[in-house]
Amino acid sequence: MFYACKKVCVSTDSSYGELFITTGSSYYYTEGMFTSTGGEFTGSPATNTSYYTSNVVIYADGTRSDEYTESVSNYLTFCGDTNTFTTLSLSSVDAVGVNVKISNDTKTWETWDGTAYSVTGGQCYVCGYDNTAFATDTLTYCRFSGDFNEVYGNIMSLLEYSAPDNATMSDYAFFSMFSGCFLLEMVLGLELPATELTDYCYTNMFRNCTSLTTTPELPAMTLAGYCYSSMFLGCTSLIAASSLPAITLAGFCYQYMFYGCTSLEVIPSLAHVTTFANGCCTYMFYNCSNVEVSTDSSYGELLITTGDTSSYFSSMFTFTSGEFIGSPEANTSYYTSNDTV
After folding, report:
1. Of 96, 123, 93, 91, which Cα lies nearest the Cα of 111?
2. pLDDT for 17
3. Is the pTM of this model over 0.70?
């Protein structure tokens, strides 16, 4: 079969890739099979013996011995139509200096430089390691692109897939990561589990994702400067937001968060907030034309202001459609006819 194949190297050393296993009488089956090959073993294989090779082997299932296989359980899954979601890209991988892997089956992984990756079956998987952020500042950041319509999984698996619960998130961690992904509709299964945030960590994350209808859960209790700023700005199909449980706000944390979300109907109540900060809610619901705000206490409680509000709430409700629009005043309770979370 391999007679005089000089570059075929066969051995009985199991540290090499598995090639051939004989059983029973083998003389008439394998006579001269490896004669005049170039390895440690040549000639006719013996009975009941395993043989190995340093050559690349293609196995019956189509996998190759030179492919990198690893059991990975934490990753992001990207889904789309099998006819249109054929490539996935991630910009600025080298510029930011992140380590990323990608796979079509969660078994065979390859190191990814972010260039267009061929997706099979409308689904692929991405994880990372030894990362703390996918951006260095507001100008240099990694952004996914491709015709995917759903993303789910633990976002922290991009930082450290082997131990996402112990990953360290630094400033700008996921800045603008999905911005401008016009076909992205569903992120309910996307986990953003961090309870303590960093500056700019989710800023612009879904900005101008015009097909997005709902948001991920946002469980953080300790906020940071600009952490959610412009996160959903321009998401014109967004209908329902998630709750915002923090009771102490940070500078500019919700600035422009839902700016221009003209379909938004279910909104987060901030009635539980006790401590505000400079710029925290400026332009938060600007031009959310389906949001109705009032000072009528027969509606659901939305916001209770305290002290000087001039730097906290500028244009928070400008171009909304309720009885009250504009900037909330000091020491005043505001209500809404919208459903709240």
Report:
1. 93
2. 72
3. yes
